[in-house]
Amino acid sequence: MDLIRRLGAAEGLKLNLHKARPVNTFDAHRLLHLAAACGRADQMLEHLLGAYHTDGSDIADPYVLQRLGAEAGLDTGDVGALLSGDAYAGAVRADGEHAVEDGVTGVPALVGTRPPVSAVQPPAELTRLLERSITDRPG
Hints:
This protein has a two-stranded antiparallel ribbon with strand order 1-2. The chain is globular. The protein has helices at 2-10, 26-37, 41-55, 62-71, 76-84, 89-102, 123-135, and strands at residues 109-110, 117-118. Helices cover 59% and strands 3% of the residues. It is built from seven helices and two strands.
């Protein structure tokens, strides 16, 4: 955990990992798919990660997800409909299946490498791993 805090601090992030509690992130992943469909994936991801890793918010709570969706610029009606239905559930399940097929065993993971590796590394090391995976690709 100390490594994660140090890496975050080096990027200007204050990570309060002691506040984070494991929760079911299935709906948060569905919300991210909605955000992607609306061209707001980056904003949604920033809000989700900040809420979880810095604020210690329960990102399984529909009220929290509704607020974060609005903060990311999503239509509140669309977010409410998503949370009361099952939109993108199949896509999230497929994402999980692909991760298993790719050999991912934990998060965050860098999947552009073989085998996947932990993405909890200094940016320079991640860059090196990505560059190596590009040069090692056939074709």
